[in-house]
């Protein structure tokens, strides 16, 4: 079958499909190419251009595929944490909900090209490395409640200083309030 002719309904339908986000499992990170379905992805993987790109990427990483995957994992983690820090700060958010925000950028590194095979394994890695706090919700009665919620842990010196100043202000205001109450009690007799 040939390509759909310009202006036909099939052509317009294909153009609409290309505009939106497609399934991430049909994305080739090496070629940065999105395929429409499983058959297209299979054909792409066997294509000479993909094999050439794969050999070029492998030669850049000294024929070590683990090093190449590690590079993608590092880029993914940097972008993921940067977006989490900018959009949500230290507030908790559902892991899947945030991942949906992350993949809205068409040029993102896909999770299937990293060393983490699932969002759960990524969340556990973030918790073990101390980059995020992860809460596991065992009660999944409500459909809006996600199993994993993540919150960025800001370890920057500015953040530590800001937290310390807030703590000092709270202690100061508490002591001022107690002193004021004591003076009122003394005035009353």
From TrEMBL:
<dbReference type="InterPro" id="IPR038254">
    <property type="entry name" value="KIN17_WH-like_sf"/>
</dbReference>
<feature type="domain" description="DNA/RNA-binding protein Kin17 WH-like">
    <location>
        <begin position="56"/>
        <end position="187"/>
    </location>
</feature>
<dbReference type="GO" id="GO:0006260">
    <property type="term" value="P:DNA replication"/>
</dbReference>
<dbReference type="GO" id="GO:0006974">
    <property type="term" value="P:DNA damage response"/>
</dbReference>
<dbReference type="GO" id="GO:0003690">
    <property type="term" value="F:double-stranded DNA binding"/>
</dbReference>
<keyword id="KW-0862">Zinc</keyword>
<dbReference type="GO" id="GO:0005634">
    <property type="term" value="C:nucleus"/>
</dbReference>
<dbReference type="InterPro" id="IPR036236">
    <property type="entry name" value="Znf_C2H2_sf"/>
</dbReference>
<dbReference type="Pfam" id="PF10357">
    <property type="entry name" value="WH_KIN17"/>
</dbReference>
<dbReference type="Pfam" id="PF25095">
    <property type="entry name" value="C2H2-zf_KIN17"/>
</dbReference>
<feature type="domain" description="U1-type">
    <location>
        <begin position="23"/>
        <end position="57"/>
    </location>
</feature>
<dbReference type="InterPro" id="IPR037321">
    <property type="entry name" value="KIN17-like"/>
</dbReference>
<dbReference type="GO" id="GO:0008270">
    <property type="term" value="F:zinc ion binding"/>
</dbReference>
<keyword id="KW-0479">Metal-binding</keyword>
<dbReference type="InterPro" id="IPR003604">
    <property type="entry name" value="Matrin/U1-like-C_Znf_C2H2"/>
</dbReference>
<dbReference type="InterPro" id="IPR019447">
    <property type="entry name" value="DNA/RNA-bd_Kin17_WH-like_dom"/>
</dbReference>
<keyword id="KW-0863">Zinc-finger</keyword>
<protein>
    <recommendedName>
        <fullName>C2H2-type domain-containing protein</fullName>
    </recommendedName>
</protein>
<dbReference type="InterPro" id="IPR056767">
    <property type="entry name" value="C2H2-Znf_KIN17"/>
</dbReference>
């Amino acid at each position: 079958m040939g390509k759909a002719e310009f202006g036909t309904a099939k052509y317009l339908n294909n153009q609409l499909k290309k505009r939106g986000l497609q399934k991430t499992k049909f994305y080739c990170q090496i070629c940065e190419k999105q395929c429409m379905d499983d058959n297209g992805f299979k054909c792409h993987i066997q294509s000479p251009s993909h094999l050439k790109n794969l050999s070029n990427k492998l030669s850049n990483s000294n024929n070590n595929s683990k090093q190449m995957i590690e590079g993608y994992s590092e880029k993914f983690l940097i972008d993921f944490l940067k977006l989490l820090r900018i959009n949500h700060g230290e507030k908790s958010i559902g892991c899947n909900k945030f991942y949906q925000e992350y993949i809205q950028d068409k040029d993102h590194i896909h999770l299937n090209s990293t060393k983490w095979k699932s969002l759960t394994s990524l969340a556990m890695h973030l918790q073990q490395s101390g980059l995020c706090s992860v809460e596991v919700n065992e009660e999944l009665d409500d459909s809006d409640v996600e199993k994993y919620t993540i919150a960025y842990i800001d370890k920057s010196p500015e953040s530590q200083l800001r937290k310390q100043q807030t703590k000092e202000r709270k202690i100061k205001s508490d002591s001022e309030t107690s002193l004021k109450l004591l003076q009122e009690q003394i005035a009353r007799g």
